[in-house]
Amino acid sequence: MTEGRDVGGALRASPPYALLDTVREHLAAVYGATLVRLYLTDYGGTVLSPCDPSCDPSENGAGSLPVSNSPEGRALGSQERHAQQVPHGDAVDHHLPVTVRGDRIGILTVRLPRDRSTPAVLDELRQVVDQLGHEILVAERDTDLYQRARRVSRLTLAAEMQWQLLPARACTAAQYAIGAQLEPAYTVHGDNFDWASDGDELTLTVTNGMGQGVDASLLTHLAVSALRNARRAGVGLADQAALADRAVYDHYRGASHVSTLLVRVELATGRMEIIDAGSPQLWRLRGRTVERIDPDRQLPLGMFEESHYVPQSFTVLPGDRLLFVSDGVYEAPSPRGGTYVEAALARALQSTRLLPAALVPGALLRDVAEYRAAETLDDALVLCFDWFGDSLD
To answer: Which portions of the sequence form the region Disordered (predicted)?
Structure first.
C-alpha cells in the first residue's frame, strides 16, 4: 500500500503555512481521520504548543500540553507512538512523534476509527509524519507560523538572535547522537552551540560571549559566524580558531572576547582534536567513571591580536558520553554554599546515563535549577554527545 506516501507531493506543493491543512485533508480522505492536531515543542522543551492557524486554542481542548505529564509528552519522550482510547466512542487517538534526524519537533495526533487503527495503517502514518517534519523545517524559511507556535512567551531580542543561530537541538547519525539546550530559553543572550558533519568528520563548538543582553548576543553571533565561515572554507581546527579570533579582535580591539571550546571528531576512528579557548568545560562518562577532560587552556577568541591556537588529541571510545557545559552550569552556586561542579555534576551525569542524548541537557538543566533553588538561571548551556563508533566496525 502506497497511499501514505502520496502526501509527499501534496506537502511540497502546499503553501508553507498550510502544511497541517494538507495533512488533515489527506488523512481524512485516505484513512477516515476525524481529528488531526499538530503540537510543537516549545523553546524550553517543557510544553507542547498547538500549531493550527484555523483553530481557536480555547476550543476543543486544543491548548498547550505539558511534556512531563501528558500522553503526547510520553510519546515525545519515548519516541514511540502512543494510542489513547477516546471516551464515549469507538475511536482511538494516535500520538505520533515528529522527529527529523533526532530533533524532536513535536507530536501529530491523529484520531482514527478503531477498525482503521491497524499496524499497516500506523506504519503508513509514520511515513506521513516523517514527510511532515521535513517539510516544516523547509517551510520555516518562508513563514513564522511554526516558530510562533513554539513560544509560550515572548523571546527577548538577544534570545531571538541566539535561537536563530542554532543548528537544531538534537541530531543523530550512525556514529553519534547529540542533544543541546540553552537556558533561560526565552532570555538567553551569550551562550551558543554549533555543529556540522560532512561525512568524514564532525565539528562541535560551544561559545560563551562576555557581557549581557544584545551586546553579548552580537558578540557571539560574530564569533559563530566567523567560525562557520572558516570551517566552510575547509581549513583546519587551529585556523578556524585563529580566523575567528582575528575577526573578533578586529571589531572589538580586545575590549570583548568569546570563550570557546572547539572539537573535531574523525568519524572513522573516534580521534578528536580539541581547542580549549575559554570557559566551557568538557566532561566524560565512560562506563560509570566521570572525569573532566582538561586540555591546555588557551586564550579566548578576540582577547589579543594574532593569537596562536594548538589542537590537542584525544580519542573517544564506543559508549563514551561527552558533556559540554558553560560556566552558568558548573559555577551555579547553592544557597548552602559550593558550586554545582563540586557537589552535583558527576551525580547528575550518572543519574542521566540511561537517557538518550536529546533528553540529557533538559534533565541536567532542571537539576541545576533545583540546586540553585532559584526560579531562573544565568545563561547556561549543556550539550551532550554520545559516541557509538563506526557502524561498519
So the answer is: 54-88
CA–CA dist 84, 176 (Å, integer)? 33
Helix, strand or coil, per DSSP, at residue 322: strand
SS3 state of residue 96: strand
Cβ atoms of 200 and 266 closer than 8 Å: yes
CA separation for the pair 382, 160 (Å, rounded) = 19
- Widest CA span in the chain: 72
Q: List b or e across 337-354, with b for residues whose CB sees 16 or more CB atoms inside 10 angstroms.
A: eebbbeebbbebbeebee
38-73 as b/e: b if 16+ CB within 10 A: bbbbbbbbbbbbbbbeeeeeeeeebeebebeebebb
Q: At a CB cut-off of 8 Å and minimum separation 6, what does 347 contact?
A: none
At 372 the three-state DSSP class reads helix
> What is the rounded CA–CA span in Å between residue 228 and residue 209?
16
- How far apart (Å, rounded) are the C-alpha atoms in residues 357 and 178? 6
Check if the beta carbon of residue 109 is closer than 8 Å to that of residue 96.
yes
Dist CA 205 CA 52 (whole Å): 35
| Cis amide leading into 113 (omega within 30) | no
Q: What is the pLDDT of residues 141-152, one digit of tens each?
A: 999 999 999 999
Rounded to whole angstroms, the Cα distance separating 51 from 62 reads: 9
Residue 262 contacts residue 203 (beta carbons within 8 Å):
yes
Helix (H) or strand (E) holding 155: none
What does the alpha-carbon distance between residue 7 and residue 22 come to, in Å, rounded to a whole number? 8
pLDDT in tens, 81-94: 999 999 988 999 99
* Signed CA dihedral, 49, 55, 57, 61: sign only: negative
Placement of cell 577568541 in the chain = 301
Terminal C-alpha separation, the chain: 36
Average pLDDT over residues 222-243: 97
